[in-house]
């Protein structure tokens, strides 16, 4: 079973092109938040993975390989954003509420730290930043992104 669009394309697996959805989203409004409701096992994770490969500035050099033969291959707006992908679909249900909140905060803080590593060519990691609080780290990240003149695509899975 493939868990990402990149692995499907890299391993030359069968893929039914659903990238035609991307231009349709931009026709509505490029700055809109979209909510996609689909039943389990219906391709939400794959669609998010496609959007991540399409938007991520770090996959720009591989765009031809990943998207040749798809509906978005001739697009001029690809690979121009940072991508922050968060998965809220895995429930944390054991223990006191305080512990669950702490685990949740630590997991989100880790994603912020990972983002700095993933985009180290574009974002300078703040000195003395320990990423212990998600809200604090997120605010600093948004300022760094604003200073970079790039945009960020938030991909959230619930």
Could you name the ranges where pLDDT drops below 50 across 5 or more consecutive residues? none
Q: Could you report the average pLDDT, rounded to the nearest whole number?
A: 84
Order of helices and strands: HHHHEHHE
Instruction: Compute the separation of the termini in Å.
Output: 21 Å
Structural classification:
mainly alpha
Number of helices: 6
Numbering strands along the chain, what is their spatial order in the largest sheet? 1-2
Please describe the topology of this protein.
Elements: H1 5-10, H2 21-28, H3 44-55, H4 63-67, E1 81-87, H5 97-118, H6 134-148, E2 151-157
Parallel strand pairs: 1-2
Helix pairs in contact: 5-6
List keywords for this structure.
158 residues; mainly alpha; 2 domains; 6 helices
Outline the structure in words:
The structure is a single chain. This protein has 158 residues and is mainly alpha-helical. The chain has two domains: 1-79, no CATH class; 90-149, no CATH class. It is 43% helix and 9% strand. It has helices at 5-10, 21-28, 44-55, 63-67, 97-118, 134-148; strands at 81-87, 151-157. Strands 1-2 form a two-stranded parallel ribbon. The model has no long low-confidence stretch (mean pLDDT 84).
Task: Give a quick rundown of the structure.
The chain is 43% helix and 9% strand. The chain is mainly alpha-helical and 158 residues long. It is globular and about 45 Å long.
């Amino acid at each position: 079973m493939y868990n990402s669009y990149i692995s499907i394309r890299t391993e030359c697996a069968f893929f039914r092109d659903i990238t035609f959805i991307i231009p349709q989203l931009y026709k509505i409004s490029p700055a809109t938040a979209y909510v996609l409701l689909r039943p389990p096992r219906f391709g939400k994770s794959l669609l998010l993975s496609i959007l991540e490969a399409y938007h991520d500035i770090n996959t720009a050099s591989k765009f031809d390989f990943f998207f040749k033969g798809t509906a978005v291959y001739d697009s001029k707006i690809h690979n121009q954003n940072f991508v922050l992908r968060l998965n809220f679909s895995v429930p944390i249900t054991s223990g006191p509420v305080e512990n669950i909140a702490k685990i949740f905060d630590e997991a989100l803080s880790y994603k912020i730290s990972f983002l700095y590593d993933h985009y180290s060519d574009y974002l300078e990691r703040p000195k003395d930043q320990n990423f212990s609080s998600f809200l604090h780290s997120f605010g600093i990240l948004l300022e760094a992104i604003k200073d970079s003149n790039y945009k960020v695509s938030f991909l959230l899975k619930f």
